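Narrative of accomplishments. A recurring question from our advisory board has been how the design workflow behaves on a single, concrete structure rather than in aggregate. To address it, we present the structure tokens for one chain from the evaluation set, followed by the sequence designed for it. No filtering or post-editing was applied between the two.
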């Protein structure tokens, strides 16, 4: 019988300090508008789960979807042009 602990050293060979690097923080900061837009969309969808969606809920979800698409487009254009913040 093989113990998982014996195999774990192979999987976690690189020592992680638990802190993100500066490059990872910069990448997160660059993607933050997309993350916020996706959270807003998720919030709008969660609100409509508890009850039957009315016209206001549908508009809120549509607006949130448009914001997600706009944020993703902005990120893709920024990444495609090579411009950073």
């Amino acid at each position: 019988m093989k113990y998982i602990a014996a195999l774990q050293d192979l999987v976690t060979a690189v020592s992680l300090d638990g802190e993100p690097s500066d490059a990872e923080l910069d990448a997160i900061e660059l993607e933050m508008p997309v993350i916020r837009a996706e959270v807003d969309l998720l919030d709008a969808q969660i609100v409509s789960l508890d009850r039957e969606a009315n016209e206001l809920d549908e508009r809120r979800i549509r607006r949130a979807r448009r914001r997600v698409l706009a944020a993703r487009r902005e990120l893709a254009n920024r990444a495609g042009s090579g411009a950073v913040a």
